């Protein structure tokens, strides 16, 4: 029994190691080649494993990238769920500024993988769907936050929360992509401050 | 001389007709297949012409799409250059509302070709560059408009025009793509009205 258990554990351990080697190799190849040019054969060669083994662990390039970027995505979901119960316009401004800055900084600190992700979005429906989920989660969260502010008498009620929310997220999202591609016109702090000022002065009373 | 001139004109006419047949065929194939799946061989088959002839007129799929979408692109450039000399916040709001609505309507009335264009952007650097030009033209125009409003004492001066402008264009652009993919949460008029209200109340005094 002892031997059989050790054998299973040994197999399991090797399986985990292979998975990690494949992920590590995929990261290297994606960063070197970009998503489109990267091939599974380059990845398995670097990971010193075979096609069959690779496909036991991952269904393909998209799948590898999604796993590689999972912790970044988890951080996006977390920002989207920032608690938001301001008691004044100024408190709202403070929370929103921090949320925007954290969002922009996440792109900056993961710039290279986000570049690969951005390239992959145009090529892989699975990756596009992944980003769409994040976008929807943000838009839902923002809609809730606007409705809360409207109910508290802090925000104007002549505009619909579900029409304001996408417009606001789009500004943040696209600024984030400009940070990913290193083409932003100001520091992250100034971008966050400008976006927040326009938004809170446009929406809050 | 008469005969020779007729011959040249005849050739020229046939060349124009071939070009138009190729464009017409490309439009049909792009709308049926999308950009990625469409092939030059499908296009020349439908246009009843050969590879050699096709490559006399166009360098490839990207080139065909760029020519097909040229008049839409020209209309975008025109909107980006809307004259903007408001004398009050209310006048600014009126001009901006019309500009936004025209912009969104352009996407709606060219939805199918814009869908092809959007797909092609992720695949063709030439088409991505084309859209980047339009985006830059808009951001430059908006920056000028904000600076004008600031100089006239109509807009707040604590924010930099070149940081406000991209954020504002991004909201419009992404809303436009949501219209292209038929996923917008409200009528074009309500979107334009909401975007304009948030923007002018956030920026103008």
UniProtKB/TrEMBL annotation, chains A, B:
Coiled coil: none annotated. The keyword Nucleotide-binding does not apply. Transmembrane segments: none annotated. InterPro entries: EthR_C, Homeodomain-like_sf, HTH-type_Tx_Regulator, HTH_TetR, Tet_transcr_reg_TetR-rel_C_sf. GO terms for molecular function: DNA binding. Residues 39-58 bind DNA. The keyword DNA-binding applies. It comes from the Bacteria. Residues 16-76 form the HTH tetR-type domain. PROSITE patterns: HTH_TETR_2 (PS50977). Keywords: DNA-binding. Pfam families: EthR_C, TetR_N. PANTHER family: ACREF/ENVCD OPERON REPRESSOR-RELATED, TETR-FAMILY TRANSCRIPTIONAL REGULATOR. This is TetR/AcrR family transcriptional regulator.
